[in-house]
Amino acid sequence: MSYIKSRKHSPATLAVFATLAMPLALHAEVNTAAEPVAQQGDARIPEVTVSGRVANNEFQIPQRSASDKFTAPLLDTPKSVTVVPSEVIAQTGATSLADALRTVPGITMGAAEGGNPVGDNLFIRGYNAQTDTYIDGIRDSGSQSREVFAIEQIEVVKGPNSAYGGRSSAGGGVNIVSKTAKLDNFYNGSVGFGTDNYKRVTADINRTIGTDSAFRVAIMGHEADVAGRGPVGGDRWGIAPTIGFGLSGPTQVNLSYYHMESSELPDTGIPFNNPITSGANMSKNGDGAPISVPRDTFYGLTNRDFRDTETDIGTVDVKHDFGNGLTLRNVTRYGKTSQDYVWTQPDDSKGNVVLYGTVWRRANTRVTETETLANTTALSGEARTGMLKHNFSTGIEFSREQTDRSSYIFTPGTNNLLTKNTTCATSGAATGYNCAPLVGANPDDPWAYSRSVSPAQTSVRTNTRAVYAIDTIEFTPQWLLNVGVRWDDFTSTLNVPQYTLNNVTTAAQNAQVNSTFANYQAGVVYKPAANSSVYLSYGTSSTPPGNDGGDGLDALTTVIQNLKPQESKNFELGTKWEVLSRRLSLSAAIFKSEMDNARVTAPDGTTQNVGRKSVRGVEFGATGSITNAWQVFGGYTWLDGRIDDNGFVNTAATGAPAVWQASPYNGNVFPTTPKHSATLWTTYKVLPNLTVGGGLNSMSKVYANVNNNKWAPGYTRFDAMANYIVNGHVSLQLNVQNLSDKLYFDKVSSPHYAGVAAGRSASLTASFKY
After folding, report:
1. Which of 167, 414, 433, 689 would be 725's cystine partner, CB 3.0–4.6 Å?
2. How far, in Å, CA of 429 to CA of 199, rounded?
3. Which residues form the signal peptide (predicted)?
């Protein structure tokens, strides 16, 4: 019923005490604001009384997830969930999903590589979560860089997510909540200008139709260069109309459409100073950090590189409230995402960087289109069985994804024309400008070759059927149990037809994975008071072969098609408190995630499910208002990610019989997993019409490979904001990003290069509300 297609203290010790002691430390405050403590035998929880009105400028802490799969308020959900509200997105000046997620600790951005596309490559708690992005609860397939103009809020769910979303990583997932039509009339908009050619216009218009329907449209146009990165930049535009019928009645119908296009010159990053551990060139051994060159060094070619994307998503959402505690909802969605690019990767793997002071301009290319059709039906509501109260959600899901992918080929080619290979002892015209100097690379080199789409075409079709049930069981007002189970039937088929290139014929290739898997979650919640919870939870996730649907690193091949899904489990102990008259939400958690059958090379040289990975960590969060004038949003995460068993490696000399020995990388740190990461965004109303704010984003050293010999240094970045209300309809906001103009690297997952973050930039935005 569905169809989809794609192209183009240790800190842990401190956390234990914090988690267990927080209820005692905060209990006095709760009781001062609450009803009299219940007498012995009284089953009631002391209720917090909130008096007075919340000021208009105060940030409202989120009460519930927008997903109907969350069957309890966030306070009583035994899981780490961070909600990034629209206020924080606007205040920080975020214009993309990647910008907005910078406010959430524990998330790192991965760099693109040959098999990993350009786009939102997320790592959550150290695990690759590239395919774990959802829009209104439905998986958003296809590589892309997502915008924020049509986003109401962003929900980051930490830990195994498969009981909610099916196939997924052990780290978690991101759910984007879209703007929808409301029974209200408003005209909102903004116009912004800034440094580095920044121009942005948005509009958000909602109009009622009669007494029970409404229409809303969000529009965006954006253009900007990347501060400090030479010619890198681009433009995009988008429109997202929605219309809702029966919005105040039992049956509601929402029709929505989303369209966005972008065109840009993609960034290239800086290659690593390649470490040499043996041989005649030991004297030139690098330290594994990104090489030291000016920030604006760009190794791409303006005559060759480009990235064009287009996204279309249409949704029909029908919901009926039976009036007896039951709600039935059906959502059908069609989406198509295309991405075409030629993008220069400054490849360090050929030895040129340390031997010759040059870099090979490796051309990574992709022509991809992904189509998706998904249908979900969910029944949710409340029920009682004897003395037990249930809040439940159960449903079925069907989806079909198809990704068609190819690449570009160039004539005469992208190798060094002198050597006919990737060795770059020199650079410049004689090499066809395919080799560039490390210092002084010219992006405007007159590179001129013909380009065509490769006859090698890859098609991957993925079908999923799933059924799930989630229930929050209330035994008493103090004790709750959250349980969930989901069963998935996952089939993915790879088809590469026979093709001929350069007079060489390559045989057709076919592979298929048929996998069924069940995932579970269970969490017990104890509520010391109505404004608090302490929980202990367990959850699992499954990552089958071909998890990426043909558009990422986890591709389906004949080598892995018969493997079982990688299975992960997570244990978490945490607490959540709503304090200061429930205007400030505080959370703390300790957790451990394990992947017991990771795919690695086995002792016989084959790929098997014999590897093991683990991550243990600590997490703190704060969201809301400390006073009527002072708001905070941020957190801290400590992660200890280890590759416990990385399988075996062949230690024999070239040409000799294989000798398989345990991987020397056992015990190494996860790539893309900082031990420490912290974020903070805070604002203060200094005058009735003036609010100032600032924030930081801090991250410790991150490795780019399992060898742990290529890495990016840690950093702390600062931002600032000032907002002035001119009148009831107009406000002005100044944002300065990367206030100290810090040179740092924000994308590290490729073993060849690190992505360079933008330098200091400023923008002034006028916002209008009527």
Report:
1. 689
2. 37
3. 1-28
Find out whether 352 and 358 touch, Cβ atoms under 8 Å. Answer: yes
CA nearest neighbour of 464 among 527, 354, 357, 373: 373
DSSP classification of residue 118 = S
Residue 14 lies in a domain: no
The pair phi, psi for residue 103, each rounded to 5°, is -85, 0
Please give the C-alpha separations between residue 687 and each of 69, 331, 625, 684, 729, in angstroms, as whole numbers: 42, 46, 17, 9, 18
Q: 574: domain range?
A: 81-769
**Is it the case that residue 12 has pLDDT exceeding 60?**
no
Residue 100 lies in a domain: yes
The domain total for the chain is 1
Closest CA to 768 of 735, 729, 727: 729
In a domain, 33, yes or no: no
Q: Which amino acid is at 577?
A: W
Q: What is the DSSP letter of 49?
A: P
For residue 312, how far is the Cα from the chain centroid?
A: 20
Indicate if the pLDDT at residue 553 is higher than 80.
Answer: no
Give the CATH number, domain containing residue 421.
2.40.170.20
Q: What is the pLDDT of residue 424?
A: 95
What's the pLDDT tens digit per position in 32-48? 333 333 333 333 333 33
Task: Kindly report each contact of residues 289-293 with a partner whose C-beta sits within 8 Å and lies 24 or more positions away, as own/partner.
Answer: 289/711, 289/712, 289/713, 290/712, 290/745, 290/753, 290/754, 291/353, 291/438, 293/438, 293/439
- Write out the two tokens for 524: 């017990």
The residue-averaged pLDDT of 502-517 equals: 90
- How would you write 306-366 as a 3-class SS string? EEEEEEEEEEEEEEEECCCCEEEEEEEEEEEEEEEEEEEEEECCCCHHHHHCEEEEEEEEE
How many other CB atoms are there within 10 angstroms of residue 138's CB atom?
A: 21
Q: What's the pLDDT score for residue 603? A: 80
619 vs 85: CA distance, rounded Å: 19
Please check whether residue 717 is in contact with residue 757, taking contact to mean a CB–CB distance below 8 angstroms. yes
Residue 398: CB atoms within 10 Å: 18
Do the beta carbons of residue 723 and residue 690 sit within 8 Å? Answer: yes
- Asked if residue 4 has pLDDT above 60, the reply is no
CA-nearest of 341, 395, 345 to 368 is 341
pLDDT for 472 beyond 60:
yes
pLDDT the model gives residue 227: 97
